[in-house]
Amino acid sequence: MSMIIGWREWVEFPEWNLKFKAKADTGAKSSAIDCAEITELPGNRVRFTVRLDRKEKKLITLEEDICLRKRVRSSTGHPTDRLFVETTLHLAGIEKKIVVSLVCRKRMIHRLLLGREALGNDFLVNSSVDHWATPKRGKKTKH
């Protein structure tokens, strides 16, 4: 049975000690996280700086293994090559491994987009509701 969530929810990435307001987007196949800098490293690794707010006052730099390289068509229809990393998502009592692409989303409202691959069979999105499973207000980061 799927957990019902709203089109926007608070999600946690416990491995990174982060909490984000995410947009659940069933029109997007993959998920994306907003990065200010992305540097490919030797050994199939990547260092990336995540924007935690739109004003770029809160940034955190992380390093992970690259789990996937793929060409993705953006919301504007332009294809770009992206790096993907795997992490654990915690949402509405469900914890699961997901894959997220690293991309600049500074012009977007939400720092994190959850696509169909991350939502899978675990979540059913009620697009008419903002924050069904989590409170509307919340602390953006644990840092």
Keywords:
143 residues; mainly beta; Cathepsin D, subunit A, domain 1; 3% helix; disordered C terminus
Structure commentary:
It is a single chain. With 143 residues, this protein is mainly β. The chain has a domain at 3-33 and 68-130: Beta Barrel (Cathepsin D, subunit A, domain 1), CATH 2.40.70. The chain is 3% helix and 58% strand. It is built from one helix and ten strands. It has one helix at residues 116-119; strands at residues 3-13, 18-24, 31-41, 45-51, 59-65, 68-73, 79-91, 94-103, 112-114, 123-130. Strands 1, 2, 3, 4, 5, 6, 7, 8, 9 and 10 form a ten-stranded mixed β-sheet that branches. The relative contact order is 0.34. The model is unreliable at 139-143 (pLDDT under 50).
